[in-house]
Amino acid sequence: MRLWAVLASVMMLGWGSASAQTEKSDSIVQAIDSLYNQLMTDSARVDVGLDTLNEVPFLSEQTVLPAREARDWDTWRPDPQKALWLALVIPGGGQIYNRKYWKLPIVYGGFLGCVYAMRWNNMMYKDYAQAYLDLMDDDPGTASYNQFLHLGRQITPANEERYKTLFKKRKDKYRRWRDLSFFVMVGVYAISVVDAYVDAELSEFDISKDLSMKVRPTVMGNGSSANPIHAASLGVNCSINF
């Protein structure tokens, strides 16, 4: 904007009369000098702005971001505490963190087997419990126990006590198996947690390749005997390398 103002002032000075040309010559020279100084000032500002941009780290061409190092899985060792907490929060999470994927079918298979056994035993317990209640109430309209009778069998006053005892035993048996399935599932969960922690703890345990046991005959000295024949005896030497 300043540049256009200077140019406009120069043009206005040039449009004066001929008698005023001599008086205005000095003003024209001053206007040209001012125009030159203004151009030099704007050029310096542009140069300073470019230098400032080059000093910004993310705009400089010489700035190189450090490359992220890839994890070496051959030297990686799991953290036992992290493996323990993952196994506590997520069943099988510790095995996944330890990169022991082959243990996941065992862990989840144990959980699914316990859940199936618990549901099936609970269903049988409810059926036999209802059959036992129907047999005890002496109401002919409630006869759910007939589904457990063999073809052609009926409950009569002669065998009623025997069936009552049978239904009660089976009811208690399936209830006990249902509760046992739950405790087995808790045991599978506890074993998976312990396995994850121990596996991570022993990941840095160095085991020598020479793991062997050697058994060889040996001669053992007996210094208490004065007879040279009885001074030594044969025996077996067992050595373990690990």
Write up this protein.
The protein is 57% helix and 8% strand. The relative contact order is 0.09. With 242 residues, it is mainly α. A two-stranded antiparallel ribbon has the order 1-2. The chain is flat. It contains six helices and two strands, in the order H-H-H-H-H-H-E-E. The protein starts with a helix and ends with a strand. Helix 1 packs antiparallel against helix 2 (21-55), helix 3 runs antiparallel to helix 6 and helix 5 (104-136) packs antiparallel against helix 6.
Key features of this structure:
242 residues, mainly alpha, two-stranded antiparallel sheet
Summary?
This protein has 242 residues and is mainly alpha-helical.
Strand content: 5-15%
Shape, per Cα inertia axes = flat
Radius of gyration (Å): 49 Å
Oligomeric state, counting identical vs distinct chains: single chain
Strand order of the largest sheet: 1-2
What is the N-to-C succession of helices and strands? HHHHHHEE
Q: What distance separates the N and C termini?
A: 89 Å
Structural class, from helix and strand content? mainly alpha
Helix content: 55-70%
Spans of at least 5 consecutive residues whose pLDDT stays below 50 are 13-22
Largest sheet: 2 strands, antiparallel
Mean pLDDT: 75
Would you report the number of β strands?
2
Q: Enumerate how many helices there are, as a single number.
A: 6
Lay out the secondary structure.
Elements lengths: L1 H13 L6 H35 L24 H10 L3 H5 L6 H33 L23 H42 L10 E10 L10 E10 L1
Antiparallel strand pairs: 1-2
Helix pairs in contact: 1-2, 3-6, 5-6
